[in-house]
Amino acid sequence: MPSALKTKSSNSSRRASGPYDRRGDASLNRRKNAGQESALTTSNTELKITRSRALKGHGTVQEIVACIPTLRGNSSVEVKVMYEPGQPPVIPKAVIAPQIRSLVLSGNSSHIKGRELFMQFLNALRVPNAKMIAILWPGRSTSEFEDTIYSFLTKAGSSGNLQTVILSLQCCYRPGLKDYLRSPEAEHLVSLSLHTNADVEAEILCVLPHRHWLFNLEDLTLRNANNIKPRFFLEALEKRHAGGRSKLSSVRITAVKGLSKAVVERARAIGIEFECFRSVYVKED
Question: How many CA atoms lie within 13 A of 161 on its CB side?
Fold first, then answer.
């Protein structure tokens, strides 16, 4: 995760941060001043609220939930979700967070119970004012897990504020992906990035030609979905353009063999900058 942002502050705001007390996390709100950077740490947890009102680092679902109410004003969350065996599976029924404008959650699926806790967290979390949501959860997955993610995105997008979605998923539940891309809530998206090794050509190409789906989309990135043939993708873009009022202007896909000059020129003729990644991206741990 990126390091905490450093900004100028008064001497009164430069106070030593205290340790995170699992039993007394409510006291954090009383200790924290408006300009103070608070470090929240345990043996396996490192969460930090920066002076720019961002919650960063890594921690368990319960610890992240405990920190969210301490965020003030327009805030952001960029955390890696950890799982500690034996932690109590207790998540509030509702975690209301209207102050969150940007949400980045990353993790892995190696622990089934940890995945179940994360699903409970998403079902409880309410971020009606979020403009950007990224869920970076590569590795093994289940239909139920991914359905929970799409339901969360639908719920978050119902206010019309969500404009950017970034997903790194196995995409094993393709009907859920297709339904989300066709949903009224996804119409507000301006930017969509999908990182997956799955064969999602059918789900993507059946949505793109219809201008009413993803109506406001301007920027589209498909990483590692190397099965998508540039020519077929371009034909879908041309059908969308022919339907009128297409706002797409930038498209990037993985094409190891590259894009032909003819494909690039045809895309530019309809106002789209068509680019490609020449290699398959592998995330480093």
Answer: 17
Looking at the DSSP assignment, which residues form a beta bridge with residue 91?
A: none
96-to-65, 103, 123 alpha-carbon distances in Å: 10, 13, 11
Say how far apart CA 241 and CA 248 lie, in whole Å. Answer: 9
Measured in degrees and rounded to the nearest 5, phi and psi for residue 278 equal -90, 0
The rounded distance, in Å, linking the Cα atoms of 165 and 154 is: 11
Distance of CA 62 to the CA centre of its chain: 19
pLDDT in tens, 29-81: 434 433 344 443 333 669 999 999 999 999 999 999 999 999 999 999 999 99
Question: What is the pTM (predicted TM-score) of this model?
Answer: 0.82
* Per-residue confidence band for 179, with pLDDT thresholds at 50, 70 and 90: very high
Interaxial angle between packed helices 143-157 and 174-182, expressed in degrees from 0 to 180 and rounded to the nearest 10: 10
CA distance to 27, 37, 54, 234, per residue, from 40 (Å): 12, 10, 13, 49
Q: Which DSSP helix (H) or strand (E) runs through 39?
A: strand 38-41
38 dihedral zone (left: phi>0; alpha: psi -120 to 50; beta)? beta
CB contact set of 256 (below 8 Å; sequence gap of 6+): 226, 278, 279, 280
Give the CB-side neighbour count of residue 71, counting CA atoms within 13 A.
30
The one-letter code for the residue type at 276 is: C
- Among 80, 70, 25, 19, smallest CA distance to 49 is for 70
**CA–CA gap between residue 210 and residue 196 (Å, rounded):** 23
pLDDT tier, 269 (very low <50, low <70, confident <90, very high otherwise): very high
Amino acid occupying residue 149:
I
153: tokens are 């995105």
